[in-house]
Design brief:
two-stranded antiparallel ribbon; elongated; 2 domains; alpha+beta; about 170 residues
Amino acid sequence: MALSKIAQQFAAEISHQDWSDAHIRLDRAGHDRNIDSKSHLYGDVLSADGARCVKTNAMWVTAQVLAYNDPNFDVYEFAEACGINTSNSRGGRDRSFAAGLREHYGRYQRPGTFEYDPVTEVVTADTSETYHAATSCPLFSRGSHSISIRKFPVDKVPDRWKPCHCMPRGRT
């Protein structure tokens, strides 16, 4: 799925920025040491790995907000658009990029907090034994092909369904 327009623009800015001296000076958006005047050059720059870490952290902070607001957001697609290699040493997907977001079974914590929005509605299917906080729960999406989805207010779920692990304690 393609990144949203705002995600593409954030990725372009993060990719475009020179992060090598981010630890010693405040720079404008689009900073590039290669075009700085000689009076503004500093010798103490980050290693390529250090600049990659700063860039990755900037990507994660931005990705947290995007993922919270966009149910179709893909952190790997975003990281790649930011110019960050998401492959592991074997050529597969490096799972640490998903781990950089505050997420639990497809639910993202509100930006600037360590809290999830309260669950007010749950989803299930007649063929399921459990109900879920959202259709983004991997356990729900694994078994929800070609079935009708049933929705209930969180406090009115029939007893025949038990909560999935994606549900916060106390059904909220």
